[in-house]
Amino acid sequence: MEGSGVGRGCCALMMHVISKGRALPLAWRVRQCPKGHFPEDLHIALVALVSHLIPAGTQVVFLGDGECDGIQLQETMHEAGWWYACRTSKGNTATWDDETFHVDELGACLKPGRLIELKEVQWTREAYGPVMLRCCWAQGHAEPWYWVRNMSSAEEAIDDDKKRFRIETFFSDQKSRGFHIQKSHLTDPQRLSRLFIASCLAYIW
Prior knowledge:
By secondary structure, the chain is an alpha+beta fold. The chain has six helices and ten strands; from the N terminus they run βββαβαβββαβββααα.
């Protein structure tokens, strides 16, 4: 799941499936807003929509950035039986082994090339969980990255998260390297959503 600016003064929140190295669009919502995070209820609505498209028994791994770490969204995916691994903010609060701390305290304990993983974590001051919290400082990066997830394997979460960046290729093809949808001058979310039908079909073909 990822959002991006489209048209004039609008943003699209989209969900994709990774197939053969490409992010193929499944569903989207467009609204008038400055570029930035979408409210959590729109994330949940999109997950609910896509969940009806997925055949029963399919294993789903949801990947999202820092706007996808809301408690209600996590609960929605848990109830749907989805695995998830979402980037999160270093300013969040967590409780582990009866100790409450800010997430960035994990990064302060790391050196580049190292990883910390905590299980049975209660997330935020609302104590949602248990979830898993991972802090990874990859070589060549300026600072650590943080994830909240329900996946049992850190290695699987890392491998899956690498696929999330395929969506950036999709947006590049929709915008600067392809259809230039950001220059359409449309301001009506419904018209932009219809335009996406054409551009997404062209992208897949």
